[in-house]
Amino acid sequence: MDVIKKIPLKNYVKDQYVDCLVVNNDYYFLIPTINKVYKYNFGLSDFIPLETEEKYKGVTYNKSEDILYTIKENDNNNIFITDLQFKEIGLIKLNVNEKYKDKINDIYYCDIKKRIYITTDNYVYSVTEDGYFIKEEYDISKVGTITTTTIVRELDGKTYPVTTTIPIPNTYFTCCYALHNSLYIGYVKEKSSYLIRISLSGEMIENNYIDSNIKINSIINVTDCINLLILSNDLYNYIYITDFKNNTEGCHWEQCRNKILESVALVTSSISSILNVESEKMKKVISESNNISEVIEASNSVNKTIDGVASLEQLLLEKLEYCSKED
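Above: the chain sequence. Below: its structure as tokens.
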């Protein structure tokens, strides 16, 4: 992933943007120290300030409900639900272990997974729409440590290796973004910023160097391209446009998987109906016929149907296994 364009942002206030959201082709930028949100046009050439009732430092969009999830400075226990004008309409209390109750740097809502990803300095974790802990997605130690091995010699001349893991100072997560079957996480290490891509099982797929003396405040998907809200030298905001194109394969996969699951459910319901019909058929033959040949013929017919159903159920099982492998 390479940066192909850097667009400077001007807000004419002393504080800098800490988060960004794109809704209906408009950019919304947040400054946590004032009761305003700055709305830019799609070309980032002009903006208007919008007054808000509260001060917010992070925001994400729940498209299916047409609401916003927001966070405030110095509040690590709650997510605030607002409408698109940033008027509060609800509250989510976070029910997580104490080790995750640290300063929240960023939140991101995934419409497909129906979960909220929360970024702190040391962890990225996910919660339900009600705030209940789902799982730890990533740990800073996986990118913020170095391992050294020293050979130790004993008095008798024998040697053995001693491995030491040392945290790298000033390494922390800044933001995250879920796309299809991957999670993208921005982090700072030794004054440089990186963007890593991990699988849903937590395995690192790639680690991209972005730039030095910057911080990635937000990851944005705009017209199938990943953009980054950047804070440079703790003074200046930029939008970095990358050459990463949104691969729609994952989106197609989600749609295909849902259709597969729907078809499995329909066929399973049909199988139940077929077996009920065959059962009633057999009961009727047994109760009404005195001809053993007719009973045997009906029994053979039912057995053929059952054999066909068994083959179909095996096919359905293979479909379900195929779907589960992509998780």
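The mean pLDDT is 83.
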